[in-house]
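Next comes the chain:
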Amino acid sequence: MSGLLDLFLMFFRIGLFTFGGGYAMLPLIREEVTRRGLMTMEELISFVAVSESTPGPFAVNIATYVGLHRAGLAGSAFATLGVVLPSFIVILVVARFYEKFKTSRAVQGIMSGLRPAVVGLLASAALGIAGNVFFPDGFRFSPALPAALGIFGLTLYLTFKKHHPIKLICLCAVLGIAVMYGLEALGVSV
């Protein structure tokens, strides 16, 4: 039971101290999960990819996957409840006192201060994941790097051309599989 309680408390803290949505949680999740040895960075990156590709809020998906990975179905329930509960409580409190707080200079100041912090957390998450995706063995050349950068560039181009995200996800999955099998067929280890 202590393992389940630990999962709940870990994700409760992450949910409590993260503003800005699921991506802003990523640096905290990365730190907690890897520091505790719950999973490797590579496993976490895979879970992030799956969480991104499945319906629902990112934070809930990642908590559910991490909980399931560590402690099965009960772990997924405890981790998910832990990450959702702080937001639920805050929303209840804010809804109750919204009219009183909405013009408060202190509240407006807090929100002004949180915006740059959220941008910093998002940038940290993006750079951390990009480093592990593009340079998994440190700053050494990987044969998959040009293909990954090409897929990334194509995704950016198609995003700006307003292609549907589901089509982009499917296209990137197919291209990633093709590149990995192609490199393997050529006898190149990645």
Helices lie at 2-16, 22-35, 41-53, 58-101, 105-134, 145-160, 165-185.
